[in-house]
Design brief:
3 domains; SH3 type barrels; six-stranded antiparallel beta sheet; alpha+beta; binds zinc ion; 14 helices; single chain; 11 strands
Length: 395
């Protein structure tokens, strides 16, 4: 494959979204939040009081809190920043679609809203592009759910519409994203935020940035043609990759801010990454061979360490280092591919184990390894040999 390896740019960012949480780990998070009642927390941001209303998801021994507000945003407030805290007995309810719509309209002046069954898309590019995104995401949603339900994983429905923001130009997107991503924003074409639970991206066709074409009607077929062009696949893959993360965190696979090993969350996202844009069905090919990742894995094999499987499943380090990240993604895709095909039941059981993990509680590498072995067996070497041999036969 020429050009950039699929998803490479976003993948490096993916790892960063986890790093921002690390600062909070200095606190001991051990007390589960209450499932009932509405929590009110006042804190300060830049010298101004901020009043949060929502549900405390988890609480630190020292009084710090992790609160999910009614918009679905997670706020980690260290104890020294909790100015005031109360609770009443009203039930927590996420914002309705109408409330979210009103909220987004205030937050993003000039944006319009596109509604689909499961998504709420706020955009300031052409309506055709927003509709294209909505249709693509609904196809992914159905493919994702069908795929796992057929394999016995009981998914839950998202408790609120899934939000995606689409900016007209890369510049506008970068300006917005910088608040969350810092300077990395300039290098990535879309991201899923664990904090806000939103996917943010821009119009990949650039139709709004080419005024000479503005009078033309853009159709879904034209958009597909533009994005099927050589060099655009990885951008589309990134948008899907991030939307898959959003699904995984909203359909019961993982809990936001839980310690999900990157091999599993990234392996899962890469597994769904490439849609078939030419087909109206989209993901006919779910779980098919990903040529870019397979090729990368093959090239990695000669230098692959004997304990590669162990380091992959017990630590996120290889995903975090820019010089090892792409090989780690390729190995995560390969391992996911192998386990789903050869050990479906065990893979689902491992996913269920991960789904039970609470937020803010982090495992040691030894604990991660034990969890892996408890499902896939104690003999890692034998499994590794089988894995490498199997991947050698994949075409
Ligand atoms: Zn990812």
């Amino acid at each position: 494959m020429g050009g950039l390896p699929a998803g490479s740019v976003s993948d490096i960012f993916d790892v960063m979204r986890y790093q921002s949480i690390e600062l909070l780990l200095l606190t001991c998070w051990s007390v589960a939040g209450s499932a009932f009642g509405l929590d009110y927390v006042t804190t300060e941001r830049e010298g101004r009081p901020v009043h949060l209303v929502g549900q405390i998801v988890t609480e630190a021994a020292d009084g710090g809190v992790l609160l999910r507000d009614r918009e679905g945003i997670l706020w980690a407030v260290p104890s020294e920043q909790v100015v005031r805290r109360t609770r009443d007995d009203q039930p927590y309810q996420p914002m309705s679609r109408a409330e979210l719509s009103a909220r987004l309209t205030v937050e993003l002046p000039g944006f319009r809203l596109h509604h689909t069954a499961n998504y709420l898309i706020a955009y300031n590019t052409s309506p055709a592009y927003a509709q294209w995104c909505g249709a693509l995401y609904e196809r992914l949603y159905r493919a994702f759910r069908n795929y796992w339900e057929r394999r016995g994983f009981a998914l839950r429905d998202p408790d609120m519409p899934l939000i995606a923001l689409v900016f007209d130009t890369r510049d506008a997107y970068t300006k917005y994203a910088r608040a969350e991503l810092g300077d990395a924003a300039g290098n990535i074409v879309g991201y899923y935020s664990l904090r806000s639970n939103r996917v943010t991206m821009f119009d990949l066709t650039g139709s709004q940035a080419r005024p000479q074409e503005s009078g033309r009607t853009t159709t879904s077929a034209q958009i597909n043609r533009l994005l099927a062009a050589p060099g655009a696949e990885w951008m589309v893959a990134t948008i899907i990759h991030e939307a898959t993360h959003q699904l995984a965190y909203n359909c019961g696979f993982h809990t936001r801010f839980a310690d999900i090993p990157l091999w599993i969350s990234e392996g899962l996202a890469v597994y769904f990454e490439t849609p078939d844009l030419a087909s109206s069905q989209g993901w006919r090919n779910v779980g098919g061979v990903h040529p870019g990742r397979l090729d990368r894995f093959r090239r990695f094999l000669p230098k692959r360490a004997a304990d590669s499987l162990q380091t992959l499943v017990s630590s996120d380090d290889r995903f975090r280092q820019p010089d090892t990240a792409l090989d780690a993604y390729a190995e995560a895709w390969s391992l996911t591919y192998f386990l789903i095909r050869k050990y479906t039941g065990q893979y689902i059981r491992y996913l269920q184990l991960m789904a039970e993990k609470p937020p803010m509680i982090y495992d040691t590498p030894e604990e991660r390894l034990e969890a892996f072995k408890s499902v896939f067996g104690q003999d890692l070497q034998a499994l590794d040999a089988e894995f490498v041999e199997y991947m050698g036969s994949v075409r």
